[in-house]
Amino acid sequence: xxxxxxxxxxxxxxxxxxxxxxxxxxxxxxxxxxxxxxxxxxxxxxxxxxxxxxxxxxxxxxxxxxxxxxxxxxxxxxxxxxxxxxxxxxxxxxxxxxxxxxxxxxxxxxxxxxxxxxxxxxxxxxxxxxxxxxxxxxxxxxxxxxxxxxxxxxxxxxxxxxxxxxxxxxxxxxxxxxxxxxxxxxxxxxxxxxxxxxxxxxxxxxxxxxxxxxx
Length: 215
Known about the structure:
This protein folds into two domains: 4-47 and 104-214, 3-Layer(aba) Sandwich (Ribosomal Protein L4, Chain: A); 54-94, no CATH class. It is built from seven helices and six strands; from the N terminus they run ββαααβαβαβαβα. By secondary structure, it is an alpha/beta fold.
């Protein structure tokens, strides 16, 4: 039988209301820093537009006529005023549009996500709540919720099982607070916030997804 880890489930006032069992591999595995680094680098590289471009001599207008005859002038031979050696000429080996994506293999990506979750769990920064609901979509309601969890002045990543417009709108004006759906959980955002708050449903969704990928 696969080993499991029991994580306490809290209310929005940080009172224990239950427990949830997840595979030990999800939050109890080794934290491989090189995998975390590679995953973050891959995500950041994928965000680069890669649209920078320079003109080589073939793209610079003009210069179709030889500036002077090949011999007899006492000057160095020249074939075009758009040579890279001339002012206004083309660029030698300049940057061109390209794809910067450096996507890790699927097994490495899921291992990196497990390592990020294990790091937050080992540091006591993973908080699982039974549910996250707000009376209204206002910033002060989110502040009250975070204050109840003891995280009102912290950098927090909130992970929900499904989209919740009230929670997303209430958190968007708070610096250091970000809301994600479980399907979009990634290494960069986990490591970019000091605390990770997940609903029970979100944790179970992530655990099921990673279990399916390991099979």
